[in-house]
Amino acid sequence: MIELKNLERSYKTGHTEMWVLRRIDLTIQAGEFVTVMGPSGAGKSSLLNVLAMLDDQWKGELWFDGVAVHAMNRKERARLARERIGIVFQSYHLLDDLTVAENIDLPLTYKEIPRSEREALVADTLDRFNIVGKKDLFPNQLSGGQQQLVGIARAVIHKPALLLADEPTGNLHSTQAKEIMEMFQLLNEQGTTIVQVSHSEANAAYGTRTIELRDGWLTRDTATEKVQGVPA
C-alpha cells in the first residue's frame, strides 16, 4: 500500500538545515497495523504528516497503492488524502461550533453523497461507537475520551484505506486508552491499514509491527528484525 524511497525532510533555521527524516526506505502492506516509536524529536510526527499528505516539503518518493504521490500537485494530493486517508489527532481537532453528529459528518461533505445517505451513515457510526446520546452535544460538553471517540468516528466514517493516528491515547486515562486501542484493533481486523505514533509499549502490542526512529533515521523494524546503525 505504502512505499517510501529515500524520503528526507529538513527545516531551515537561518543558515542551518535541521534534518528530521533521513533516507527513509519503508514499505507498509495493506492490512498491517504499524506502530512508529522513538524518543521526542525522532521524526515520528514528521513521518506521519508526510503519510497524511499534510506536508509536501519533503524529498524522495512516496507511493500510495501504486500512485506516485511525489509526482502529484498539492490539490491532487489533498483530494487523494480526503478520499483514502483518515486521521486521528492527539488533540482531537474537533470543530467547536459543530455538534458531534456534524463533526462526524464532515468528511462526507467532501463527497457527492445524498444528504439522506449521509444522515444514515452518521446514524450508523454513532451507534457503532456508542455515542448516539451525544450526537447533539458540542465538543466542550464531552470528556477527553468521548472527544477522542468522536475524532476516531470522524476519521473512519468514509471507510478510509489508511488510518493514521498521532499519540491517540496520550491524553486519556488507562481505561479509555484500552477502549481506544481495542477499537483500533477491531478496525484493523476489518481491513483498515493503521499507522500510529506512540510512546506506549502497551499500545504497540495491539499492532502487528513496530518501527523505531532516532534522529530522523529508521533504526529498527520488527518486520525484519533488522537493526540499523545511525550514521555518524
Describe this protein's structure.
The protein has helices at about 45-50, 75-85, 100-105, 115-130, 145-155, 175-190, 200-205, and strands at about 1-15, 15-30, 35, 60-65, 65-70, 85-90, 160-165, 195, 210-215, 215-220, 225. It is an alpha/beta fold. About 40% of the residues are buried. It has a seven-stranded mixed β-sheet, sandwiched between helices. Strands 2-1-4-5 form a four-stranded antiparallel β-sheet, covered by helices on one side. Helix content is about 30%, strand content about 30%.
Task: Throw out a few tags for this protein.
single chain; 232 residues; alpha/beta; Rossmann fold; 7-stranded mixed beta sheet; 4-stranded antiparallel beta sheet; 7 helices; 11 strands; 31% helix
Number of discrete helical segments: 7
Globular, elongated, flat, extended or rod-shaped: what is the shape? globular
* Uncertain segments: none
Q: What is the CATH superfamily classification?
A: P-loop containing nucleotide triphosphate hydrolases
Q: Tell me the name of the CATH class.
A: Alpha Beta
Question: Under CATH, the topology is which?
Answer: Rossmann fold
Major sheet: arrangement of strands: 6-7-8-3-9-10-11
Distance between the termini: 32 Å
State the order of secondary-structure elements, H for helix, E for strand: EEEHEEHEHHHEHEHEEE
CATH architecture: 3-Layer(aba) Sandwich
Which percent band covers the strand fraction? 25-35%
Query: Could you describe the largest sheet, including whether it forms a barrel?
Result: 7 strands, mixed
In total, the number of strands is 11
Q: Tell me, rounded to a whole number, the average pLDDT.
A: 90
User: Roughly what percent helix?
Assistant: 25-40%
Structural class: alpha/beta
Domain count: 1
Cα gyration radius (Å): 18 Å
